[in-house]
Design goal:
The chain is an alpha/beta fold. It is built from 12 helices and 13 strands. Helix content is 34%, strand content 15%. It has a 7-stranded parallel beta sheet with strand order 3-2-1-4-5-6-7, sandwiched between helices. Strands 10-9-8-11-12-13 form a 6-stranded parallel beta sheet, sandwiched between helices. The radius of gyration is 21 Å and the shape is globular.
């Protein structure tokens, strides 16, 4: 069996949805990998380390950067004659590899990104779809998007969805509501970054039309990647900044409804987190991927219309969709893929699901 070497750049990065996916899958693979030789390669400055029992952690190179990925990590994989497993969109340009592409946002909405970022990721995704042995993605919608923009790819595309069970390990924080000046069941909560794709304008305009309601918005803004946005916030919006998982879970449990009216997602973990935390309602965009993930357990609205009476539409939705997703189920899919591609003399035929 060929050695599988996981790209550990994510352990030197801030934990967002993509890094969460990598972390949780690696933890689950650690429980499954008795029949595989797997290493996790990390740079020296990776402050976040995982407590692994079966997957060996090795240090190579210094900084968790694109350059580390293209040089130190790439050289290590070649020296070990291994296959790299890359779970956060990017990967070495050469060598045997399996790569997770979470979404095609850079192609579907290039206006959200700087020119430098667009050029690099378009080049990178062309390389991945041309040279990777297999491509992972997080939804059937994203699989369709990959095939839409790269119809000639010969890589097998495997859907291994996100999970929500990491949130079950999070404890609510006593005093979180008081910290942010909020009252139970008296506010609408949105947890996302302030990126153009996240459609903060919908919350702003909806808040203007619902002046007696309170809106709490948590998240940050990455000015190095995303185009600048100037927004005039009404007084009934509270910008909370970055919040911890403990505070987030508390706010999800206590809100009237969780808002996730984004323009484009590959999957969208926060609505599942909110439902698992006990949010009575999630209000999301009326898009293909949201229907795929949440089914009947959401209220759907147009991300471009703002005249909604939230008091009227924020009704209980249930949480049966949670049963569909788990990190364990997704890790089992990845494990089966690794077993097949780990055999150097048994490269499977392409199966794109066409």
């Amino acid at each position: 069996m060929a050695k599988i070497i996981i790209n550990g750049k994510f352990l030197g990065q801030r934990l967002t949805g993509v890094q969460r996916y990598a972390k949780e899958l690696v933890l689950e693979l650690d429980r499954l990998c008795g029949d595989l030789e797997i290493e996790l390669a990390v740079p020296e400055n990776a402050e976040n380390r995982l407590d692994l029992k079966n997957i060996k952690t090795v240090v190579c190179g210094k900084n968790a950067s694109t350059l580390w990925e293209l040089t130190a990590f790439s050289r290590y994989v070649k020296r070990k004659k291994g296959i790299s497993l890359n779970l956060c969109n990017s990967a070495p340009l050469s060598g045997k590899k399996i790569v997770c592409i979470h979404d095609m946002k850079v192609f579907a909405h290039p206006e959200y990104f700087t020119k430098k970022f667009r050029v690099w990721y378009r080049f990178l995704f062309r390389n991945v779809t041309k040279k990777a042995k297999a491509v992972l993605t997080v939804s059937e919608f994203s699989k369709g998007e990959i095939l839409k923009y790269f119809p000639k790819t010969k890589a097998e595309i495997c859907v291994a969805e996100n999970g929500w069970q990491h949130f079950a390990r999070v404890e609510e924080r006593r005093g979180a509501l008081e910290k942010y000046g909020l009252l139970p069941q008296n506010f609408y909560f949105a947890l996302s970054s302030l990126e153009p794709n996240k459609n903060l304008k919908w919350i702003v305009e909806t808040a203007r039309r619902n002046p007696d309601e309170t809106f709490a918005v948590a998240g940050g803004f990455n000015g190095k990647i995303f185009a600048e946005s100037k927004i005039d916030f009404p007084k009934n919006i509270k910008l909370l900044g970055y919040v911890s998982d403990e505070d987030s879970k508390t706010l999800m449990h206590a809100c009237k409804a969780f808002l996730f009216v984004t323009f484009y997602e590959g999957f969208g973990i926060p609505p599942l987190e909110a439902l698992s935390a006990g949010a009575p309602c999630v209000i999301v965009s009326d898009t293909e991927v949201m229907h795929e993930v949440l089914g009947e357990n959401a209220v759907y609205v147009s991300p471009e219309k703002y005249g909604y009476d939230l008091h009227a539409i924020a009704v209980p939705v249930g949480n049966a969709c949670l049963e569909k997703y788990s990190w364990e189920k997704s890790a089992e899919k990845v494990h089966k893929l690794l077993l097949r591609y780990g055999e150097p003399d048994k490269i499977p035929q392409t199966d794109r699901g066409d």
